[in-house]
Give the backbone structure.
Amino acid sequence: MNNVTMKINADDLILAALKEDITSEDISTNAVMPQYQLGEVDLICKEDGVIAGLDVFKRVFELLDADTKVTFTCRDGDVVKNGQKLGVVRGDIRVLLSGERTALNYLQRMSGIATYTRTIVDLLSGSNTKLLDTRKTTPGMRLFEKYAVKVGGGCNHRYNLSDGILLKDNHIGAAGGVKEAVKLAKEYAPFVRKIEIEVENFTMLKDALEAGADIIMLDNMSVEDMREAVALCRGKAETECSGNVTKENVAKLIDIGVDYISSGALTHSSPILDLSLKNLHAVR
């Protein structure tokens, strides 16, 4: 995540998180540190994983005080180990204390997603299948969570509702059927937009292929049915499988030949990576 992206897209979100945590003052910090004092604190990893969100972590402190200096000994995407020192934050101790929780919340959450994503990407290694995220993200966190998926080696599905056409069961119901939904989408959408549609059985699949859908999402189908569906789609449409995909069950999907596997679990069920700020001390 570069500085331009950060300033255009992330700063307002980070400021909102800081305002949520500091409505009028940080009363605990102000009680013990009423005046400026230069200090340092170490960023420590407390379990093995993949780090993601270092620029966001740094930006929290910069938005509180532009003079804060953050140095890292690792980069996003690196594998980090329990006990490893990842960096140092140097600045006004009041800023270090007030920004600590918000900065760690971002870094722990993003690193947890990157770690979980890397686990599934490794399981898919050797196949031609790409791992995708979904829109099942935390409100206000989508930018950060989808970035973390990329750091972990996954790929981003559409960012939001304006980003691509995905016709799911309720869209199909609203349109009156699979063929009708695809036809209406083709009439409405610019020619540069691909049309993806969700199917749950072979009747829907046949209708989607006849209507000219570009991508077929195989939703909650058995492994045997998905394998047959992929064969039917070959040369006619790309394929994606979805439906409760986790690191525990993804292995059984590796050899069915699907182009994409999407997993909401990447962003809604990954545990955080345990990190902390320790050894705060004054610098004289």
Notes: The two ends are 34 Å apart (CA to CA). The chain has two domains: 3-115+271-282, 121-268.
